[in-house]
Amino acid sequence: MHTKPGQGRQAILQECDLEAVQAAVKEHRQRLSVAKAELEQTLGKSFCRKTLADFVKKTVASINESANVPDAAKRLSASRSRKFTP
Question: CB-based contacts of 17: which residues, under 8 Å, 6+ apart?
Fold first, then answer.
């Protein structure tokens, strides 16, 4: 069985929406539902929070690079390397 290119549902959030998503997530990093509501107004598209979370997860490397967010593994290793001195 072979499927033709273009089969299946088209993505709701696309690469052209990346800048708007980055700005909304950067502004509301802890409240994805608030970022979702803002993006629905801005983009004129309706989608669920999971769709936004999946899109952010897929593009997290570019978001972290543009926002200069330190890598979690680097923070963890730095905190473990500190020694407690009373």
Answer: 39, 43, 55
Give the model's confidence band at 9: pLDDT under 50 very low, under 70 low, under 90 confident, else very high: confident
In the chain, % helix, strand, coil (3-state, to 5) comes to 60, 0, 40
Question: Nearest CA to 55 among 30, 8, 22?
Answer: 22
**Selection from 33, 15, 12, 24 nearest residue 67 by Cα:** 24
Instruction: Render pLDDT for 48-63 as a digit per residue (tens, 0 to 9).
Output: 999 999 999 888 766 5
Angstrom distance (rounded) from CA 52 to CA 58 = 10
Annotated domain spans of the chain: 15-81
